[in-house]
Design goal:
Elements: E1 18-20, E2 23-26, E3 31-36, E4 40-43, E5 54-63, E6 71-78, E7 82-89, E8 96-100, E9 110-113, E10 124-131, E11 136-141, E12 144-150, E13 163-167, E14 170-179, H1 185-193
Length: 196
Amino acid sequence: WTFDTAGGDASGNGHDAVLQNIGLAPGRSGNALRCTGRGMAVVPDSRQLDLPEEVTICLWFKLKGSTGTWQSLVTKFLGNQSRNYGIYLCPDATGPGFSTSFENADYPHTDCTAKTPLLDGAWHHLAVSVSALDQNVVLYVDGELAVKRAVALGLLKTNDEPILIGQGVRGLIDDVRIYGWALPQATIRDVMGGSE
């Protein structure tokens, strides 16, 4: 989702986002989603977006500061009980995190966070690559490895919830991408540079 012209799915798969109480503004490239903390872009659920084995989420964002609550950049969550995948910023704004629910876990969801402050008013690229097959969660900030966590808890739980982009966020979000496989660091850097 480039958000150059509303919420059209640039992949051609027809997963268009509906903008709810949210608009567009000049972004890093073309337009971006302008988030005020009240609206969001909503991508309706689809079997193609239910990803139990592997997922990579990439996006550019520029935030204005802490909101004192969770800033959900991209999430596909059913509350705390069934989280397929999602990237967020913690209320204390210490850094980004990824959350999912694993089928064999004894707790509702598993989180992997990085202590990388990102509320400096600059554009940052955030990516998380997850593989239940290789049993790794890897988070990259601006193309560099921020944290890697080994997780052997089975497949990611799927749900029938929509993807929400920008919920509770104050700032700009641009070029959101979701892949159904785990991208390596070199490919993530290519995505950053616009060559993938």
